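Support request from a user on the community tier.

User writes: "When I paste my structure tokens into the form, the page sometimes reloads and wipes my input. The last time it worked, I copied everything first. Here is what I submitted, just in case something in the input itself triggers the reload:"
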């Protein structure tokens, strides 16, 4: 399953971030519980165990393994158990009410509107009765609120990230379906009408209609080729494969390096024409030994370079490429041809790259999570202001406002401009006031460490974030214990905020990847349709034209034979209409025996003597080889002066071989048609192979596919 590893990675990362945040929130309470063990062993261990239980219960939202502990328990039962454990830790065991942020997050995830407020009110009353300090109670209540909100945001984002990644194949399938519907509408309107016209004229069984029939067939064939070329224009892959096959057939080593992003759009048609003509020129001259085809992107343009070692002068290459420069300029590009410093001849075309798709708006889940993060920043701001001495508010308020503004900018943009300046400014606002504000300011250090961890590569970011946390603890001063506690507070804040912001980025990455997969699926679908139009409909229309011209020659000499050809044209047109429907559905399944008989008849109609040596061909292999046979016959008719042809099939149990050869080699070299590259791609994808080229004075095309 192709999608499983990727889905597991997204799920594992999401779950790991939830684990990290839940563990970070609970860690300080676990440590406090363990610190009580020497004096109160039972109470200390019970508090630590209760905190760990709350962490495990929190993980049920993202981990099926945790849910299997009590598979039949409804969500409300899990939440009730969390509340019981939390209150047990707080009331009889004396833990801080801050530990209640874990069950508070579950209440938020259950979407219970009254329960979180009621729960928070009870926590405030308990702490107020226990401490008697309004300020301390407000501080702890804010910690419960911040912790619960952040845990809720992290868990929600983790679940959403998993759904986004799991849905990417569905989105790609939907994009392909939409593209097929669009193609069906376009092709049926443009090409089906032409085939109906051809069938209607041929169905009159009257040689007098041959001239309009030939004109209709030519129009439909031209429209078919134009449509196939338009569909191929999204990608250079078919033309690149054809170029490689052409060079290999001519004994030239082909070096293909692709460095551009697809889809290309309309510019792809122009680049494909440049590539085709440049490679044809290399083969035609015939003295090259090596040819490099390189694509890349530069300054907003797609650049294609064809470099060969066989053209002696720039003038010769320029003559061969006359007319292409105008086509390239017409789309706002440029074409150059000339000698390289090393003496090789290079053709370079550059056209504007397809603009990157506009970034889609964040989905509601992402906007909610960011809104909650900004709420937490605001709550942190209020909490810090409450704890800053009144005499220092003139310094604290501006620093807090500036720091929060910088963090909002950092959170809303995956790659903010001037990120280093943003980090440096944040570091100044976080670290410089520490000597005056002490631990009241340590939260800014944790948020700064998170920003560093996100902005830099993982190893460097982790090292620098750890240094920031340690520096924050040291600057607060007050001895080893306060320094350690300050550093731990900063580290917890860092982990919690990192969980939210990293998941925000993960969701955006998954969305971009899903959109890219959908675009790639559409490109693949259009290329498949282009191949089928060329391989199936193009061949059929070529055969119709050939038979119509033969019927016109026979009309005055043998009217019966001419009418027989017209009846064959009706059959071919009906088959073409059926195949047009398969182009916009799924890969067609063809009968090799029927295709072989049709190929022999078409070649014989062109006055080519055909020898057929047909062995048994399994149905699965025959469907693929039927397409190869059509392309081979089309190439014989269009690219050779053959008088004799041979078609042979054989099997060795594991693979099936098709050989089509003809004696129409011109000047010792016969270039394969443009469809050979597409067939090479198609056969390679199923574990087959295709070679084409001169062979002892004949031209041989050999295809092998798996028998199964």
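"...and here is what came back when it finally went through:"
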């Amino acid at each position: 399953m192709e999608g499983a590893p990727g889905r597991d990675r997204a799920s594992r990362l999401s779950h790991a971030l939830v684990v990290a945040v839940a563990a970070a929130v609970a860690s300080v309470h676990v440590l406090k519980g363990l610190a009580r063990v020497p004096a109160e062993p039972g109470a200390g261990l019970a508090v630590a165990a209760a905190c760990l239980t709350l962490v495990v219960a929190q993980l049920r939202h993202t981990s099926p393994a945790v849910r299997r502990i009590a598979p039949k328990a409804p969500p409300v039962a899990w939440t009730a158990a969390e509340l019981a454990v939390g209150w047990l830790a707080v009331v009889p065991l004396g833990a801080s009410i801050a530990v209640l942020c874990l069950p508070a997050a579950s209440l938020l995830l259950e979407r219970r509107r009254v329960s979180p407020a009621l729960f928070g009110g009870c926590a405030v009353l308990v702490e107020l009765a226990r401490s008697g300090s309004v300020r301390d109670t407000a501080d702890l209540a804010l910690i419960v609120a911040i912790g619960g909100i952040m845990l809720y945001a992290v868990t929600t984002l983790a679940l959403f990230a998993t759904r986004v990644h799991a849905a990417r194949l569905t989105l790609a399938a939907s994009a392909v379906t939409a593209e097929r519907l669009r193609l069906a509408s376009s092709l049926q309107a443009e090409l089906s009408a032409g085939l109906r016209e051809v069938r209607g004229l041929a169905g009159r069984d009257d040689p007098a209609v041959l001239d309009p029939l030939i004109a209709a067939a030519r129009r439909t064939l031209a429209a078919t080729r134009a449509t196939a070329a338009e569909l191929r224009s999204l990608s250079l892959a078919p033309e690149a494969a054809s170029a490689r096959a052409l060079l290999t057939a001519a004994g030239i080593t082909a070096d293909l390096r692709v460095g551009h992003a697809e889809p290309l759009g309309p510019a792809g048609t122009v680049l494909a024409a440049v590539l085709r003509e440049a490679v044809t020129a290399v083969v035609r001259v015939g003295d090259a030994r090596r040819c490099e085809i390189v694509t890349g992107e530069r300054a907003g343009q797609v650049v294609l370079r064809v470099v060969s070692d066989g053209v002696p002068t720039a003038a010769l290459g320029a003559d061969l490429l006359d007319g292409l420069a105008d086509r390239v300029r017409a789309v706002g590009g440029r074409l150059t041809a000339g000698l390289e410093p090393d003496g090789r001849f290079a053709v370079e075309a550059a056209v504007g790259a397809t603009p990157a798709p506009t970034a889609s708006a964040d989905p509601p889940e992402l906007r909610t999570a960011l809104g909650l993060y900004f709420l937490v920043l605001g709550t942190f701001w209020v909490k810090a202001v409450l704890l800053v001495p009144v005499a220092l508010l003139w310094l604290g308020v501006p620093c807090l406002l500036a720091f929060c503004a910088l963090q909002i900018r950092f959170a809303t943009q995956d790659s903010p401009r001037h990120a280093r300046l943003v980090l440096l400014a944040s570091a100044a606002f976080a670290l410089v006031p520490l000597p005056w504000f002490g631990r009241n300011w340590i939260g800014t250090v944790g948020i700064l460490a998170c920003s560093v961890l996100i902005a830099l590569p993982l190893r460097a970011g982790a090292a620098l974030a750890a240094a920031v946390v340690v520096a924050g603890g040291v600057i607060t001063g007050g001895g080893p214990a306060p320094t350690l506690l300050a550093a731990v507070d900063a580290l917890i804040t860092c982990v919690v905020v990192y969980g939210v912001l990293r998941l925000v980025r993960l969701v955006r990455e998954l969305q971009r990847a899903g959109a890219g997969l959908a675009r790639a699926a559409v490109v693949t679908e259009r290329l498949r349709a282009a191949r089928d139009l060329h391989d199936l409909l193009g061949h059929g229309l070529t055969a119709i034209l050939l038979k119509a011209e033969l019927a016109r020659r026979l009309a005055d000499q043998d009217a019966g034979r001419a009418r027989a050809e017209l009846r064959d044209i009706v059959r071919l047109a009906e088959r073409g209409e059926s195949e047009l429907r398969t182009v916009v559905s799924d890969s067609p399944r063809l009968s090799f025996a029927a295709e072989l008989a049709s190929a022999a008849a078409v070649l014989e109609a062109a006055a080519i003597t055909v020898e057929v040596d047909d062995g048994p061909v399994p149905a699965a292999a025959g469907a693929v080889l039927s397409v190869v046979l059509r392309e081979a016959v089309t190439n014989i008719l269009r690219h050779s002066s053959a008088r004799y042809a041979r078609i042979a099939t054989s099997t060795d149990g594991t693979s099936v071989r098709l050989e089509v050869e003809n004696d129409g080699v011109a000047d010792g070299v016969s270039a394969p048609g443009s469809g050979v590259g597409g067939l090479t791609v198609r056969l390679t994808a199923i574990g087959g192979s295709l070679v084409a080229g001169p062979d002892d004075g004949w031209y041989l095309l050999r295809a092998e596919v798996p028998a199964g």
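Agent notes: The reload is a front-end session timeout and is unrelated to the input. Residues 255 and 636 are 28 Å apart (CA to CA). Confidence is low (pLDDT under 50) at residues 1-7, 313-317, 668-672. Escalated to web team.
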